[in-house]
Amino acid sequence: MNKFLFGLVFLASNSYASSSLSFNTELLMGSSSNKLHASQDFDLEDERSSSNNSTSYGIRFGLPISEYFSVELSKHFYGEADHSYTRKIPSGLINNNNFESIPVKLPIETDALKFGIKGHVNINAKLNVNLRVGLANWRYKQHSPAMLVVNDIQEQNHSGRDTYFSVGSEYELSDTIYIGIEYSQFSIKETEQGTYSADVTYSHKINDLSLVLGWAF
């Protein structure tokens, strides 16, 4: 994926014939859908899924490298989604079939630093449609989806890198200001190893719908 992105940048920059460059800054505000699943195959055979929404926002910078392509760097905050649930654990004597319900609060907060390529096609003088693809360096602030199941994984340094894509449309309000709408998606798939417990495999699919306000300088 890295070689693919750098190849696009190289080809597009070599073909750029415009005499002027513009620098774009964008603010994004929207809503994210978070779908989680975690499982571990130890004696407990624990498995759980959860889904919830969160408010998202971000800032993005773009630099055109051809008439139809730009390189972009963005920081996106996908907000805190509450994935609380109730866990039943044995109570009293062993094998007495009595269980106690314990509430577990699991707020999962995710952000990502993204680098990618944007391509666009003009529908008319003011309206375009666009496609983005790149790498998302994601990070969990504290809890990761691994905590949906019983484990002894440490709650820190949960981060990684996955590909993202988005589709959208933009409309020019003036020579320097435009508005837009964008749908983006990326999926996290990880396996984490506990100190004593079995490995935990989890997935986290983030679908985001955002409004965009941009300035061209």
Automatic annotation (TrEMBL):
The record ties this protein, via Pfam families, to: OMP_b-brl (PF13505)
Looking at the record, the residues that make up the Outer membrane protein beta-barrel domain are 43-202
Q: Does the keyword Signal apply?
A: yes
The UniProt keyword set, sorted, is:
Signal
Q: Which InterPro entries match?
A: Beta-barrel_OMP, OMP/PagP_B-barrel
Signal peptide residues are: 1-17
Asked if Ribosomal protein is a keyword of the record, the answer is no
Name of protein: Outer membrane protein beta-barrel domain-containing protein
Q: Which organism is it from?
A: Pseudoalteromonas phenolica
